[in-house]
Amino acid sequence: MVRKTFENEIQQLKDEILLLGSMVEQATLDAVEALKKRDLAWSERLIIEDKKINQKRFDLENRVMVLIATQQPMARDLRVIASILEVISELERMGDYAKGIAVINLRMGEQPLLKPLVDIPRMAIKGVDMLHRALTSFVTEDLEVARALPKEDDEVDELYTQVYRELVTYIMADPSSIERANYLLWAAHNLERLADRVTNICERTVFVVTGEYKETRTSFDEMGEGRE
Prior knowledge:
The protein contains seven helices and no strands. It is mostly helical. The chain has helices at residues 2-37, 40-71, 76-107, 119-140, 143-148, 153-173, 178-210. The protein is 80% helix and 0% strand. It is elongated.
């Protein structure tokens, strides 16, 4: 009976992780779309709504603590619980990246975009797709997907590099455009970091299933090439 209760609680937590993930996915897509359309009111709403993501994280963490206190998990159960806590934290940070893009839009004020957004929305769509599949693999403990998915981070990195190079050409042609270029680079960097955190979720899935923890990717920041 106790075991059944524990398994039910774990399943409920996984369901809530999927819900939190969907909140982050939508916030990311909305933040980029608001930037693309220079919709300041939309960005203001997104910043406020980020509090819901934060609260969801804290609520889930509290439920995990209660589970630990009441069920006394051992061995593999502890791996699952530790990984759930890690994934919850990763999702909250991804929500911060979406909020950061909303903040960028507001900081730009009434300035027009330096250029129409093409690759940044592509980064958002790819990152959100990776996140959705990573969370599904975590919940279902799909080892194959968890091991394969991090390789797709290369696509996001390539888009980031493309954004960077294109913005540099704008700055070289018109040095006064550096501020507007930096805003877009900041937005792109947030999306690049989101994809990096997706690989962290995949690593946690592998850890749950195999008991082994191994980093699967190296981010720009770890190579000294990115900016936090």
